[in-house]
Design a protein that fits this description.
Length: 121
């Protein structure tokens, strides 16, 4: 039985699994870009937070918000909140709580704007 008192309606364990999978995807992508010499992004992780520092010294900060079951993105263009929506298997998507946009699309757009080149997570 799932805990329907949580903000997302998902059990904490499912939120945690989905959030950590999203952070791992970001780190994997950054590692590949560095290996392929696409862009030099410094990535620093502290628990549920990743700070990406781009070549022009601007930053993107992605962090887990367990009490709200959200991922937050801080970028030069503003702050964004994403809530997980999807199947009970955890294979859903993170959607902006205001616009419904996909987290990885927004992250890609913000990273591209700040890096000055097209980047896709």
């Amino acid at each position: 039985m799932s805990d329907t008192t949580t903000p997302s309606g998902w059990p904490d364990a499912l939120y945690d699994q989905a959030a950590h999978r999203a952070l791992a995807r970001i780190e994997s992508c950054i590692d590949q870009w560095l290996e392929d010499d696409v862009v030099d992004i410094d990535s620093a992780r502290s628990g549920g937070m990743i700070t990406l520092t781009l070549p022009n010294r601007t930053q993107l900060i992605i962090n887990m918000q367990p009490p709200l079951h959200e991922l937050w993105l801080a970028a030069r263009s503003g702050g964004y909140h994403f809530r997980f929506g999807g199947e009970s298997t955890g294979e859903g998507v993170w959607q902006d709580t205001r616009t419904g946009e996909d987290f990885f699309l927004v992250l890609s757009r913000c990273a591209s704007e700040q890096a000055g080149k097209a980047l896709q997570f």
